[in-house]
Amino acid sequence: MKPDGGADTGAAAEGRAAEDERAARAALTRVIEPGDRRAGQWLRQFGARELMARLTCPPGDEPALPGATAKRLAGYRIRAEAAEPHGDLAAVAAAGGRFICPGDAEWPTQLDDLGDARPIGLWLRGRPDLRKWVLRSVAVVGARACTPYGAHMAASLAAGLAERGWVVVSGAAFGVDGSAHRGALGAGGATVAVLACGVDVVYPRGHCELIGRIAEQGLIVAELAPGDHPTPSRFILRNRVIAALTRGTVVVEAEYRSGSLVTARAAAQLGRFTIGVPGPVTSGLSAGVHELLRGEAVLVTDASDVAELVGDMGDLAPDRRGPVLPKDLLDPVSARVLEALPARGAAAAERIARTAGVTPDETLGRLYELHSLGFVERHGSHWQLTQRVIQGSNARRGGT
Amino acid sequence: MKPDGGADTGAAAEGRAAEDERAARAALTRVIEPGDRRAGQWLRQFGARELMARLTCPPGDEPALPGATAKRLAGYRIRAEAAEPHGDLAAVAAAGGRFICPGDAEWPTQLDDLGDARPIGLWLRGRPDLRKWVLRSVAVVGARACTPYGAHMAASLAAGLAERGWVVVSGAAFGVDGSAHRGALGAGGATVAVLACGVDVVYPRGHCELIGRIAEQGLIVAELAPGDHPTPSRFILRNRVIAALTRGTVVVEAEYRSGSLVTARAAAQLGRFTIGVPGPVTSGLSAGVHELLRGEAVLVTDASDVAELVGDMGDLAPDRRGPVLPKDLLDPVSARVLEALPARGAAAAERIARTAGVTPDETLGRLYELHSLGFVERHGSHWQLTQRVIQGSNARRGGT
Lengths: 400, 400
Fold this sequence. Notes:
Two copies of one chain form a homodimer.
Chain A: H1 4-31, H2 37-46, H3 48-56, H4 70-82, H5 85-94, E1 97-100, E2 122-125, H6 130-135, E3 137-141, H7 148-163, E4 167-170, H8 176-186, E5 191-195, H9 208-217, E6 219-222, H10 232-245, E7 248-251, H11 259-269, E8 273-276, H12 284-294, E9 298-299, H13 303-310, H14 313-316, H15 332-339, E10 347-348, H16 349-356, H17 360-372, E11 376-379, E12 382-385, H18 387-399
Parallel strand pairs in A: 3-4, 3-7, 4-5, 5-6, 7-8, 8-9
Antiparallel strand pairs in A: 1-2, 2-6, 10-12, 11-12
Helix pairs in contact in A: 1-3, 1-4, 1-5, 2-3, 7-8, 7-13, 8-9, 10-11, 15-16, 15-17, 16-17
């Protein structure tokens, strides 16, 4: 038994330890390159604080880190010395962002499928809850130098998915990625951009406004520490995060050996759906997709094909789905948004926002969360309570 | 033991019986609609002569034909009375054509896979041996009202297949069919048109010249009696013959519920390859192909994909293939064409024709037959002996 005063001290110490571990993970996002499985093993073996301690101990006391080459270790040590996690955390928080770690309520547990290549943590910008949003998400990726056909298909697939209540995840690049984000935003939908650089870095520069809009209306996700810049390998490794977060990856246009195919293959390896949109075989930009379609990928021609494929039974029979969480456990803002939905029929997001007294962007974020949780459904541009929620309310009303 | 003179009489009688059976089959092509399984059963049960006899006996002696409705039987009887098989056979022969039946050396035995829906016989125009030609054949079919993309793909696939020594089979229709025939002819290749009308009927009229060229350089095949005209059901039923003759059916462009899909599905049911060329999902003319590709069909993007798919091992490793027939059993013209090939290296068809003293069209027909039999290979616009044939000759030369 601890002494009376000791309980508080113990809890405080536990809290401090958790914060130290979080700060160490934040630091490690600057030290370790994405997808480094060896570092993932150390992290699992020693924990983040201990790993940082071993990387920052005085040069004489060379730390025991199994399997590390001297050269790689030297690089890690230089970066570890320079890391200022508290500064990063404070700066991102000041800009309205946050840092999430495995074990946090907002951590998308499907990332654990990446094993030792799981991100150390994720830097986020945007209001919505990442975990809830990506529960019902699909990646739409493809060529940067896409054709008008590719841009059209990305936008119309993303819009169609958004209208069916699916969150569209992509990489904020030019071409297909940008069209997918814009298609989702244009349909009043939810979209997540996973960057290959720091959450505060705008890349590509030409997507400054688009990335800003995603941060306002959706979510920006980065594995790399604030200020870090993209490199070719970071683009490739970012793709595994897109694949792991989503239920499936749709490749719209891709040349042979393109990064989008890496995402698609990562998706297949993770047991997610790999999906391809065919195009003219006379177009080199469809060659990669056709290669996928001859292998593991499923051919789709529109958003309803995708939704049918990745959707659970609930998508085919919406009234069979009910909330996965009691209403009482919703946070106050989500509860207010839910209360603002009409008891019968559907309402536009703007009207729900006005009724709830919540900003439109915040409302949209909450509606997609409530969708993932099974409380509401989206039909075109309108939202309504699911049949189960209505039945539940009626039953309660009848019972009192 | 038969008496001495009786042997001759017996052989002559046997020959007459075979000719009567052939004439009865020729008559039945005018009486029975293509693909009539019930009639196929009668044919199997009674033979052609007996079936014709039962259909033409005096009205009082109603024939016993199990399962025939009175109405259908009346129709058959009217047509059977009007049939003039000897006139048809003579007219087609006079125009350089012929009629082949199951059991004939030229009968493509793969048609037997159609069971009771097997054609009763086939009317042919053109020099080449149908059976040998279709041993290595692929169907290229698709929409009549195809797009420029469809026309381009049909022509380039057919040309590529022709250059690889494959015979291109199609239906002589406008659009994809016509482009496929033209692509094969343009590449100095072999092509077979299976009509939904009599072998002497030009349909569509606009393809008068094309059909004439196919009759000169390739083969025209018809299940219907001379002079018969196409009907919607005859188009549909013609497709089963295209599917059964070939190793696989490539659908280039097809709308939902189009006749080309019928051919493709017939191919799948017969254990042939069903193959699709994808296109833009924004094109209704690719919708049917994409539907196939989501099911049983294999996606291809060029002729080498098709050849790899339908080809036997020999196509991947040409020097492992050898003739399936001893050289001595070749007919004199084929033997002369074979002798005209250079012992080493390749030669153009025209040069081979000059050396052999055979017309170019005849030579081409023989070369494709020799290809099917494993004696020669086509490489681009040139032909050469297969490795096995060269080795066989060398071995013989070494042995003498």
